[in-house]
Amino acid sequence: MGTRIAFNPHVHPQFRNRAGTLVSYDVNNWNNAPASHRDLDTNRPKFLRARFVPVR
């Protein structure tokens, strides 16, 4: 499998709601690049909802 790295985060404020703001990011294998092309789920963008709290 190799070491997975997350990169290229994007905040999508147009998809903000009470649950939070949508954030997407990419994941890829670091050690075994050819294997990352066989596992299509690894190369698809991932999404999560995050609540951002103002810092004072």
Features:
56 residues, alpha+beta, three-stranded antiparallel beta sheet, elongated
How many strands, what sense, and barrel or not for the largest sheet?
Answer: 3 strands, antiparallel
Helix content: 10-25%
Alpha-carbon distance between the two ends: 42 Å
Shape: elongated
The Rg value, from CA coordinates, equals: 14 Å
Strand % is: over 45%
Mean of residue pLDDT?
83
Which spans of ≥5 residues are poorly predicted at pLDDT below 50?
A: none
Strands side by side in the biggest sheet: 1-2-3
Number of helices: 2
Estimated structural class:
alpha+beta
Quantity of strands, as a count:
3
SSE sequence, one letter per element: EEHHE
User: What's the structural domain tally?
Assistant: 1
Structural write-up:
This protein is an alpha+beta fold and 56 residues long. The chain has one domain (4-49). The protein contains two helices and three strands, in the order E-E-H-H-E. Strand 1 (4-17) and strand 2 (20-29) form a beta hairpin. It is elongated and about 45 Å long.
Describe the secondary-structure layout.
Layout: E1 4-17, E2 20-29, H1 33-38, H2 40-43, E3 46-50
